[in-house]
Design a protein that fits this description.
homodimer; 218 residues; alpha/beta; 8 helices
């Protein structure tokens, strides 16, 4: 019974997400859905990314949070159009919530839309929002077993940013084992090691993002 | 519409959770619901706790995971009765899942039941399972703003274990600010600073847990 209800919700979401995707495709806008646990560095990555894309791409941001607009305020400082979605308790964004933000952004002025999802390694993976790519962040402090324990997010992501590599000397994290677990779950996953604190590895990430977004721009 | 469905699920869960609580109360069993993000140290805390309770309490463990039985295998090494619940994709345990484990444990031989929830800072806070206390773990690598961004889990928890304090020299984490945020959200929250790696602060945690569990034992 409960399973049935959940399936209905997921199917209804697929329809809306597809309509969102069509909306963005007509306008040549590339959409990124950024996912990861609380505290893994989603907003920091977004800040470093906005610094590097400045002047080259017209970026828009949708910030998903359960409560507060802290992240949106952090991001608005970078001078990009930013909309905050408060999910009111829900643990993920869905297609309908993202659509609710359509009236708040001028999409004629945006080439690349980054949506920061609610901090959660589980549910956001189940709900499409109309994105071209899902990208997940995981930090080395979270442990190397996560691909096995939370497989869906690794499966649906195009790329994985392994963050906080500056902390590797201080934590027990076996990089090779992590890579083998992640690739076992998703052999096509693009894994990039980064540190939002030191900037290490971010060029590689920006290259990947720009290449993906260029494919969408007609 | 969707809100209505969610409310029905939560209400049905409350009924089952209350029945679970009665079941445990009749047997004088104290039940702890352990929650926190993926990788924050729930299983490590459980291991350190089992070492310290050995010979003093008859402990049982229920391990909640989306997939795999890795954690249950880690815990079974400590010689305590352990049941694995695989949620099959669901991002939290609920009362009914915990009830499903009743036949798998001999509750005449258990005084203290520890339930390790799915790694998630959001949804587990909404679903009672029949516990006496919810306890959450957060590690200093997750950032000091989390009480404001994920308030519900802080509100429903009796105690918060701030883990990985051995990493404090290497991360930006303002302890005083964190405390003030957490206590703003829940003024009665018992905050304990610990390191499962070095053992720092664990005596304080064990004292707290034993005091709580003693109250239940008739």
């Amino acid at each position: 019974m409960e399973v049935k209800v959940v399936r209905d919700i997921l199917e209804a979401n697929e329809v809306i997400a597809r309509q969102n995707w069509d909306f963005f495709a007509e306008r040549g806008i590339y959409v990124l859905n950024l996912m990861g646990s609380p505290g893994t560095g989603k907003t920091s990555l977004l800040e470093r990314t906005l610094e590097r894309l400045k002047g080259r791409w017209r970026v828009g941001v949708i910030e998903g949070d359960i409560a507060t607009s802290q992240d949106a305020e952090r991001i608005a400082r970078y001078g990009v159009p930013t909309v905050q979605i408060n999910t009111g308790g829900a643990c993920h964004l869905d297609g309908n919530m993202v659509r609710g933000a359509f009236g708040e952004l001028d999409f004629d002025q945006i080439d690349l839309l980054i949506v920061e999802n609610v901090g959660n390694l589980v549910c956001p993976a189940e709900f499409r929002i109309g994105e071209d790519d899902k990208v997940m962040i995981l930090s080395v402090t979270e442990g190397e077993d996560k691909p096995l324990k939370y497989p869906l997010m690794f499966q649906v992501s195009s790329a994985l940013l392994l963050n906080k590599i500056d902390l590797l000397p201080y934590v027990d994290f076996d990089l090779e084992r992590f890579r083998s677990y992640a690739l076992k779950v998703n052999p096509r996953l693009q894994i990039m090691e980064i540190s939002c604190k030191t900037g290490e590895g971010l060029e590689c990430w920006i290259d990947w993002l720009e290449e993906r977004a260029s494919g969408k721009r007609g």
